[in-house]
Write a structure and sequence with these properties.
This protein is of the alpha/beta class. It has ten helices and seven strands.
Length: 243
């Protein structure tokens, strides 16, 4: 963490915040919308003068790049968070969609429900492989580090959690426009049990022409298509749209 600025979302009373500072993070920016947590965070700020910035705001609407510009000098940025489960996926997609790419951060180390973590690291052909797998792994290298038992929390949740680390790929796995890739994967996985020649009818009136241009078998299902394949579909969709 030396010479690193860390962004933490949902710090609560600051258990992880204090650990990040104690372990040598050059600066920590916490984003917390719960006003009840702010006094505890202010106490940590007093214990680590000039090294903690507290932002009382909704993380979904925060401009992290602007916060980093205002932070003290650092060589790299990492996001480390025990994410609020109800917005964890939305936050991740926000960070995946950063433009321009490569992103302003080097890695994300995040806690999710284990089922979400399964989807993040899922490989093509598995039941967990889906739109979130494609959108995430297209730009990030995903690795599950370890699970966390419900007994680690008070009160204990009903689900097991997982820590996932995602490292930025300087170059995405294949060329695609992110907005188009979102549309294509949403259509393909919207009816994942159907063949692509059926599921892609929500995207185009002529899915067979789209699949032929992308050189993908119309009888395949979404979970059988790897990330470069979805990028090929995205490019083909744009080419047909431009005709």
């Amino acid at each position: 963490l030396e010479n690193t600025c860390v962004i933490e979302v949902g710090p609560g009373p600051g258990g992880l915040t204090r650990a990040l500072l104690a372990e040598g993070a050059a600066h920590v920016i916490v984003v917390e919308r719960d006003q009840r947590c702010l006094p505890a965070l202010e106490e940590i700020a007093a214990a680590f003068p000039t090294r903690l910035t507290i932002v009382a705001a909704d993380a979904l609407s925060v401009d992290e790049a602007a916060l980093i510009e205002a932070a003290p000098h650092h060589n790299q940025v990492k996001i480390v968070s025990n994410l609020p489960y109800n917005i964890g996926t939305a936050l991740l997609l926000k960070w995946v969609q950063v433009d321009p790419w490569p992103a302003w951060y080097s890695s994300l180390t995040l806690m999710f429900q284990r089922e979400v973590a399964d989807r993040l690291v899922a490989q093509v052909g598995s039941k967990a492989y889906g739109r979130l797998s494609v959108m995430t792994q297209w730009r990030l290298e995903a690795e599950r580090l370890f699970d966390v038992s419900p007994r680690a929390f008070t009160p204990a949740p009903k689900v097991t959690s997982s820590i996932v680390q995602l490292k930025v790929r300087n170059t995405p796995l294949a060329h695609a426009k992110i907005s188009t890739l979102e549309r294509v994967t949403a259509a393909a996985f919207g009816q994942r049990r159907k063949m692509l020649r059926q599921s892609l009818k929500t995207l185009t009136a002529d899915p067979l022409a789209l699949l032929e241009r992308a050189q993908i078998d119309p009888a395949e299902r979404a979970e059988q298509i790897d990330i470069p394949g979805f990028c090929a579909l995205s490019r083909a969709y744009e080419e047909i749209d431009a005709l």
